[in-house]
Every structure is written in structure tokens, then in C-alpha cells.
Amino acid sequence: MADKQGILIVLSGPSGSGKDTVLKRLIEKNDDIKVSISMTTRSMREGEIDGADYYFVTTDYFEKKIADGEMLEYAQYAGNYYGTPKAPVDEMLRAGINVVLEIEVQGAEKIRKIYPDAVSVFLMPPSIPVLEERLRLRGTEDDEALSHRLFIAEQEIRRAGEFNYIVVNDSIDRAVNDFETVIRAEKMRFSRNKNIISEVINNV
Ligand code: 5GP
């Protein structure tokens, strides 16, 4: 077991806000941060890899995992289940690794209750038209699914006040930098460094 628990970081933000891109850059630059791989019942998009982007499973399998108590949190989003398998997250935290959960707002709410020490960050698009354009350019949803995602996006943005930090994604570089700043500051919280006083006093 590591001397220090890792930090649990929740990253939420509407579909199309750039969470994947920001996280990809973040973990490339920081090897003490890992992203938890979620489980979902949605179908795989072109280019996605099972076991890397998500664990793609059936509804029966997902419901069995819920019943067996193996999910840390889960939610329904746009008609599908999404959830965080519990064991790998606990293991990484115990090993001192900082873990990011890239999840929607209902999941974020559950995590805050289970882990009061978790840090929550909301990635905010600069505006709804920019968000819509990003989603259209991504081209992963048909018109109906896209408008449904935009509808959910607005509900999610209204809940941004539940998060500890807001990072506006008007430039990827700045958003990654801001996110890293949050994590750096969180590492310095006294509550995460309770041994520091005795370490300094006893190591004269
Ligand atoms: P997408 O279908 O675009 O990959 O994801 C849809 C939404 O589900 C995104 O807001 C994403 O953050 C969220 N999501 C992904 N994994 C999880 C999870 O494990 N739990 C929860 N609650 N939401 C998730």
C-alpha cells in the first residue's frame, strides 16, 4: 500500500464538451493519473476499442453487475446504462494513483456522497452553439440523438454549480492547463498531507 491515497477526480461536462480530448492530453503528460474505464450498454462507435474506451456489455450483464454490488456508481443516459466498476478504482487509489472518472452529473452526485474527498470538475463549453457545432462535426449521432444530447447538455450545464471547479473549454491547451492546476492545488490540501507536520518535526 502506498503512503498516500490517490485523489479521486470526477470530470463531468456535456457530451461534446471535449472531456475525452482533455483527458487524453492530461494522461499523456502525467503518469500518476489514470482514467477509470467505464462499462456501458451503448453500441460501440467506429474507432472505439472494447476494454480501452469502455467495456461494452449487454443490459443483462450490466444489471447483474449492479445486483452483485460491483458498480461504484451507474446512471442511465440517453437510454443506455453507464457505470464505473468499483474494484479497479479502489485498487488504484490504494496504490496512490490519482484516478479520473469521466462521468455524467447523476454519477458525479453519487460519487460526492460516497467519497466526500473527491474533487469534482465541470468542463464547460464556451456556448451552446459551439457545443452543437462540435457535436455535429464529431458526426457520431444522427439528428435525433444529437438533439437529445443537446437537451441533456442544457440540464447538465444548469447543475454545474454542484461541482468544485469549472474549467471552460474554449481552448484545449488552456483547459488541460487549468485542469492540471486544479489537481496540483488539490495535492497541496492539508487534509491530504496530514503527516507533513510530524515528518518535518521528527526529521531534524
Ligand atoms: P458517450 O456515449 O458520449 O460516450 O457518453 C455519454 C455520457 O455518459 C457522457 O457524459 C459520459 O461522461 C457519461 N459516462 C461515461 N461513463 C460513465 C460512467 O461510468 N458513469 C456515469 N454515470 N456516466 C458515464
Write a short abstract of this structure.
With 204 residues, the protein is α/β, with parallel strands linked by helices.
Tag the structure with descriptive keywords.
204 residues; alpha/beta; Guanylate Kinase phosphate binding domain; 2 domains; 5-stranded parallel sheet; 4-stranded mixed sheet; 8 helices
Structure report:
By secondary structure, this protein is an alpha/beta fold. It has eight helices and nine strands. Strand 5 (71-77) and strand 6 (80-85) form a beta hairpin. Helix 1 crosses helix 7. The mean pLDDT is 95. The chain binds guanosine-5'-monophosphate.
At CATH level 3, the topology of the largest domain is Rossmann fold
What's the helix count? Answer: 8
C-alpha termini separation? 26 Å
Number of strands: 9
Approximately what portion of the residues adopt beta-strand conformation? 15-25%
- The shape is globular
* CATH superfamily membership of the largest domain: P-loop containing nucleotide triphosphate hydrolases
Give the quaternary arrangement of the chains.
single chain
Bound molecules: guanosine-5'-monophosphate
Largest sheet: 5 strands, parallel
**What is the percent of helical residues?**
40-55%
Low-confidence stretches: none
CATH class of the largest domain: Alpha Beta
SSE ordering: EHEEEHEEHEHEHHEHH
Strand order of the largest sheet: 2-7-1-8-9
Examine the secondary-structure arrangement and name the CATH architecture of the largest domain.
3-Layer(aba) Sandwich
Q: Tell me the Rg in angstroms.
A: 18 Å
Provide the structure class.
alpha/beta
- Domain tally: 2
Average per-residue pLDDT, rounded, comes to 95
